[in-house]
Amino acid sequence: MPETTAVSTPKGKSQPVGAVVIRFCGDSGDGMQFAGGEFASTSAIFGNDIATFPDFPAEIRAPRGTTFGVSGFQLQFSSSEIHTPGDMVNVLLAMNPAGFKVNIGDVEQGGIVIANSDEFTKVNLTKCGYPEGYNPLDDQALNAKYQIFRVPMSRLTREALEGSSIGVKDMDRCRNMFALGVAYWLYQRPLEPTIERFHAYYGKTKGRPEIAEANAIVLKAGYYFAETAELFPVRYEVAPAPCEPGVYRRISGNHALVLGLATVAQKAGKEIVFAGYPITPASDILHGLARLKHLHVRTFQAEDEIAAMCAAVGASYAGQLGVTATSGPGLALKSEGLGLAVIYELPLIVIDVQRAGPSTGMPTKTEQADLLQAMYGRPGECPCIVLAPSTPADCFDIVIEAARLAVKHMTPVVILSDGYIANGAEPWKIPDIDAIDEIRIDHPTADAKQNGAFLPYTRDPETLARPWAIPGTPGLEHRIGSLEKQERTGNVSYDPANHEAMVKLRQEKVNRAADSIPPLTVRGEDSGDVLLLGWGSTFGAIATAGDRLREMGHKVSTAHLRHLMPMPSNTEQVLRRFEKVIIPENNMGQLLMLIRSKFLIDAKGINHVRGRAFRVDSIVRGVLELMNH
After folding, report:
1. Residue 193: is the preceding peptide bond cis (ω within 30°)?
2. pLDDT (average), residues 295-324
């Protein structure tokens, strides 16, 4: 990671620590995502490994000051490799009583709580549900449990901007930068990168240099207040983490998908045609791709999910690569169109950024409950390839892999991301684009005819993929449609034997994709007492829990499935090398059901459905309990 010069050593002590979990929280209009994002970017520049998780309210604009409208941003930054945003919070910055109330239970005993005391008024305390006459900042039990620091951020922000040309409303919007300045002082973060971004974004892009200057003033005010007020007995130092040489940037899962799709367009020599309909938490993919027209990416916002799906199928039928993205409710609406792509046997990428359900459920919260829907939630025997990224950065690699598999095996590919991966972020080493292999696509020409006719359902003997003929190619006229195909000719067929043959061919084609994917690997010993098996966003928590259990002396290894349909060819072999297989999932046990039925292995589950990602300590406790039974 790039190096940067740290701020000068302050008065007082400096205490080295290995890792810190910090959370910014407040009203959804308090700029918590911006403040947390800046702290994350600055820590990445400084050289720390980072993992973040933004937590948004579901309401577009909940009543200000209520617990429904609390927004949070959690970050773990470390001097060594980390895989999660952390469990217990070491430092909480609460901009109002609602943020304090919702988040105080996640702070470790003895942890630091920095509260904007100006907002702890009688009205605000009542609005978020505290009893009349009660102020948690005065609670002796809480003050004994936590290190609570009162900072009048609202007043000090206005005082710092006295004489500024901006209005009071814009002044108050800068309070988050006062909190960020305090956090920068506490953890010895440099101010310069954030101030440069202020001027680049507000000054140049938005044409409001006065807002850039106001934020810079308040950031410095928070920093120097922390230095001169002598509230904190020590500062903390988190050293840079060792890493491979290269250029790094902070990337979220959704943005990694965007960059991955743009790379697919270059490597395949095809236009990516993205057809979508806005839905949380997948909308950022549409927004990001819309800015990349110069990279052979075309975007189309359809009137609904069904139209978006059909447009993507049409793009692939026309010879481009169709892509669509949605969340669980939208995947249900897209199911018939996805079945159309399956019977057409066309390459297509469908991204499902899962969220908590059912129905609208909790649209800004995360879950892993669409696995069975992605695999089986369509009419008839309707197989397709299903993949799941394990981290935000992995989204870049997995969408390129999805494109390769889709065109090689002529089948749709579903990618199961989720809200935790989509909105979370981590350092990403920017790859050498020239080192990424081309995606080979062969369209048949007129010489593909056999005995004067083109047979659209002849098959590659290795993959069973059919030829991808572009409509309008002279001599390649053929029939296409959603009715069952006659083998080889593609004509409509109601023959029972033909239907069974085609069903088995489409399934076998997906099964043979296992030859194109890497084997399942194990973290830890290749055999032992327990294998922790996961998929998708549980990777970080499972890997960290496995490391912790091995440090405790237990023979526990971990493995993670990025390929769910088909699974790697050595999956059963790996599972049978362990006495127990335990599967943590953010659902009621969907992979657990598949493993038990497919391999007849008596696997056990650790299942949470709380709209939040797994904590490492909950997996450790769950494994220890299951090991003792």
Report:
1. no
2. 97
What sign does the dihedral 404-409-414-416 (CA atoms) show? Answer: negative
**Mutual orientation of helices 616-627 and 539-551 as an angle, nearest 10°?**
60
Q: Which two tokens stand for residue 94?
A: 């609460």
Helices (H) and strands (E) in the chain, counts: 21, 22
Q: Report CA 422 to chain centroid distance, whole Å.
A: 3
| Spatial separation of the C-alpha atoms in residues 346 and 454, rounded to whole Å | 17
Amino acid at 462: E
| Domains of the chain, first to last | 13-237 (3.40.920.10), 249-435 (3.40.50.970), 442-516 (no CATH), 522-627 (3.40.50.920)
9 pLDDT higher than 50: no
Percent helix / strand / coil, the chain, rounded to 5: 40, 20, 35
* pLDDT one-digit tens code per residue, 400-446: 999 999 999 999 999 999 999 999 999 999 999 999 999 999 999 98
CA distance readout (Å), 346 to 27, 253, 412? 46, 26, 6
Residue 293: C-alpha distances to residues 142, 257, 394, 401, 438 (Å): 54, 16, 24, 22, 20
> What DSSP character marks residue 538?
G
Q: How many C-beta atoms lie closer than 10 Å to residue 192's C-beta?
A: 12
Q: How far is CA 618 from CA 88, 155, 392, 525, 542, in A?
A: 11, 41, 22, 22, 10
Q: Is the pLDDT of residue 79 over 90?
A: yes
Please give the Cα distance from 485 to 436 (Å, whole number): 37
Please check the confidence at residue 5 and state whether its pLDDT lies above 80: no
| Residue corresponding to tokens 């994709």 | 513
What angle do the packed helices 209-229 and 175-186 form, to 10 degrees? 40
pLDDT band at residue 12 under the 50/70/90 scheme = low
User: Which tens digits make up the pLDDT trace of 491-546?
Assistant: 999 999 999 999 999 999 999 999 999 999 999 999 999 999 999 999 999 999 99
CB 627 within 8 A of CB 554: yes
Q: Report the C-alpha gap between 73 and 256 in whole angstroms.
A: 20
Residue 59 dihedral angles phi and psi, to the nearest 5°: -70, 140
Say what the pLDDT of residue 7 is.
37
**Alpha-helical segments (H) within 187-239:** 192-198, 209-229
Greatest CA separation for the chain = 90
Question: How far apart (Å, rounded) are the C-alpha atoms in residues 420 and 252?
Answer: 10
- Residue-wise pLDDT for 345-357, tens only, equals 999 999 999 999 9
The lowest-confidence range among 4-8, 193-197, 470-474, 609-613 is 4-8
Which of 220, 235, 290, 284 has its CA nearest to residue 262?
290
pLDDT tens track for 595-629? 999 999 999 999 999 999 999 999 999 999 999 87
What is the SS3 assignment for 2-14?
Answer: CCCCCCCCCCCEE
Q: Which helix (H) or strand (E) holds 531?
A: strand 528-535
d(CA 560, CA 568): 11
pLDDT of 142 higher than 80:
yes
Q: In the Cβ-directed half-sphere of 134, how many Cα atoms lie within 13 Å?
A: 14
Q: Give residues with Cβ within 8 angstroms of 198, minimum separation 6.
A: 211, 212, 213, 215, 216, 219
The structure's pTM equals 0.94
Cα–Cα distance, 153 to 150 (Å, whole number): 9
